[in-house]
Amino acid sequence: MAVSSPRRALIAAVSLCFLLGAASSVRTATFSPSQQQNLAEDKSRLGSTPPSCRNRCSACNPCMPVQDIVLEIDKVARLIKEAMDGEKGQGMKAKATVRKENAVAAAEGGGTSSVWSSSCSKQMFLQPQANSLNTNEHMETKV
């Protein structure tokens, strides 16, 4: 025990010197007054940059938003109405009504979705009971 005690003390002293040396080598950053002023401006501007500014160049101080083109509501409504009243618009309306009718027919009592769901439920809930009965009978005949 006496041999390991000086060894432990030496290891503790070396590790303490290592930690103190590493801590003293860390320096804090020193900035010139102009750099400190720029840093303060950047920090104050961090959350106040307008969301529509695309370039984020910091050339304009404070950052000025880029103006988006504002569409006139009447003009947009007229263009949409023209598109929907044209041949393609009528074709899209016809396809939409056919798909709606098919969906309603499939969801009704004798429709394809109700037939599919009933067959799935029969397979899930009735087949396992029949299979378990067959396996029990098969095991009883072997014994």
TrEMBL record:
Q: Does the keyword Signal apply?
A: yes
| Keywords of this entry | Signal
Name by which UniProt lists this protein = Epidermal patterning factor-like protein
One Pfam family name is: EPF
Q: Where is the signal peptide?
A: 1-25
Q: Which Gene3D superfamilies match?
A: Glycogen Phosphorylase B (3.40.50.2000)
